[in-house]
Amino acid sequence: MRVDHPVRGVKVGRNDLCPCGSGKKFKKCCLTENPPVMPRNHPQKSKIRLKSPVDVAGIRRAGQLVVATLDMVEAKLAPGITTDAINSWVHQFTVEHQGIPAPLNYRGFPKSTCVSVNEVICHGIPGQRVLQDGDIVNVDVTTILDGYYADANKTFFVGTPGIDARKIVAVASQSLKEGMSMVRPGNCVGDIGWAIQTYAEGQSCSVVRDFVGHGVGFDFHEPPQIPHFGQRGDGVRLVPGMVFTIEPMINLGGYELNILEDQWTAVTRDRSLSAQFEQTLLVTENGWESLTPFPL
Q: Which of 4, 11, 74, 294 has the fewest beta carbons closer than 10 A?
């Protein structure tokens, strides 16, 4: 007997290892104790697909690879490296660990990761730009592993950062923590944005409006959108089984941006520094779990 894995269409045999990651055979784990079921939909928004425990285990494994990729990049970063070298590292590491870099050819994006330096807010296309001492660089990694997607990014210092670089990276990191603190059943999407905006603007920084977090797991981008600004009580309610990213983009100056001629790279209009941190979160019965955990 073979059982269809929920949504992903993967066949799991009775004597195969259970896809939940327990290390047990499927017949002695989820086949009997937690029979696979099709994912439920959100009670308010039918397009939001909730994740089953088996799905969460798959996203968690993809997330572990994403975090390992970011750790690998951080260990190699130094002045004099090109952003394209970072792309090569990410691509090779991902493939060597049986993953697929989700950004490659996604809607025409030409590289395996986004690398955004200094005034670049997001979607920087890796190329011949050389990292300089004092730069900040965001590396955004989305990996597909066994059909599941996980997404995270971090902003790193290159060499010795200046005062402005230290400030914007610290505010961006704390902004993600503020947003995560609002994730629990019964709260709303708007609570996340409100917490981020309140904190960041209180530090005399701004929150980018044009890009938002998003559902993830079965696909690169799923409902709902997760704005990083807003009002308490607005938007869809959070329920257990939701998986989405929070990824606030915080600018040292104004939040306005321009898109460069490549139709991807977003830069601050006033050329102020911008930083970002992102994790993939699961709404649990009592709060949240990061499926791409790293210290903030």
A: 11
Calpha distance 285→239 (Å, rounded): 8
Whole-prediction pTM: 0.87
Strands (E), the chain: 2-4, 11-13, 100-101, 114-117, 120-122, 136-145, 148-157, 206-207, 213-215, 222-226, 243-246, 249-251, 257-259, 266-268, 274-276, 279-283, 288-290
pLDDT, tens digit, 9 for 90 and up, residues 174-195: 999 999 999 999 999 999 999 9
Per the listing, tokens 């990213």 go with: 245
Is it true that the peptide bond before 224 is cis, omega within 30 degrees of 0? yes
Q: Which three-class secondary structure string do you get for 172-221?
A: HHHHHHHHHCCCCCCCEHHHHHHHHHHHHHHCCCEECCCCCEEECCCCCC
